[in-house]
Design goal:
heterodimer; A: about 230 residues; mainly alpha; MetI-like fold; about 85% helix; about 0% strand; flat; B: about 280 residues; alpha/beta; Rossmann fold; 11 helices; 10 strands; about 25% strand
Amino acid sequence: MPEWLKLMVESLPPLLYAGLVFTVPLTLLSFACGLSLGFVTALVRLYGPRPLADGFRFYVWLIRGTPLLVQLFLIFYGLPKAGIVFDPLPAAVIGFSLNVGAYTSEVIRAALLAVPRGQWEAAYSIGLTWAQAMRRTILPQASRVAVPPLANTFISLIKDTSLAAVLTVPEIFQAAQRIASVTYEPLILYTETALIYLAFSSVLSAGQQKLEARFGQHLHQAQETK
Amino acid sequence: MIQLHNIDKHFGSQHVLKDVSLQVAPGQVTALIGPSGSGKSTLLRCINLLETPSAGQITLGDASLQFGHGHAQPGRQDIHRLRLQTGMVFQNFQLFPHRTALENVMEGLLVVKKWPRAQAEARARELLQQVGMAHKADAWPGTLSGGQQQRVAIARALAQSPGLLLCDEPTSALDPELASEVVAVLRQLAANKMTMLIATHDLRLAATLADTVVFLEDGRIVDQGSSRQLFLQPQNPRTASYVSTLKEGLPEDWAVSRAKCNTNQLKVKLLHAKNL
């Protein structure tokens, strides 16, 4: 076995461990929180009272207009100066969730607006309430539109979690840095790290296709029979 | 009895309905005719409360609501109660595209009436049978023709047994052949004494189905009477001129070309011209 391959095989367990114990949970948790935040933001901006909607618009403006790395530094290294101290992992989750929330809120807002007004009216006309119409009529149709751009955000997030390394979270990238610094083999280690991220993203892309198929059931069949 | 009293509707500075009063006796079919923008659709949407009237009173069976100054904003419950007395058929069908034909019809029964699934399905199948769509129960709306979609939409509107069926230009988005399927379904409903209020440009629909025709222009009821009276001996000069545009015959040379030519395409064109 060549030397480089040996190093790759030996460093795989600690890298995978860092991925499965830190990167994956960090990604899933941040995406879940961020998506919820994005959904609430979209709803308030579309249907909420004016001042509240403005507040959420300010939030989206602020997050989208500043670098993620700066946001993470502010939360982890900046806020303690104001007496607010987070552990590394919660700080990362908060930072990523706020970020994901801002971006997905725009995706969700656009997807909700993409459902024709007549669908609301049809739902109301048979007696559905706003909440029932949203849940049973609008959301399923909006989801179809939202899945591809949301998958984009999700895949970006997986890769962005490498920034948590600077908050001392021992995720994949930090593990790779550590091993590279003792083996002096950055080319091999970072190539391997890139491949692991690529594998994670590929799994997600497959998941996206499944989701699209599910929400677009009626469209696929319509195309086949036409 | 369906009664509208002095319905007014403003959109901003636009005065769309002006003091409209109308009665529809049970089992009667009323056609609303009038030029585009005359307020036909808005009137139907006010009855279904997709729009809230600016003033006036709506009475459907034993439910009644008053609007305007001096009356409290109607509550969600009141709107819901009144709305369930009506079924609405839209010009563009507006079936739920992510639900099959059957599920479209079942939706209100499951969610609003909270019927058990089996019971809702049985009722929905029966309604699809009635509109001649039983064979397409499991089809997605996107795979159906416009006429078929509209028939499913009619079944959906009837699911919760409303006392009044509102049809907003039910045939306008359809070519004449497909429109005739929908007219056939509506005619059958009329024969079964379904109370209907139909906004339409389709003279055939108005003339063959309606007991009463109401002519609306610029948000006001200009004329009303039996369809025979309104179409054959209109008293009001404005009605006469509008109806004459609906009835205008084919140009002379078209009659000749029809004799010479028997392609389907031309037939359709001719039918269409008759409908204008």
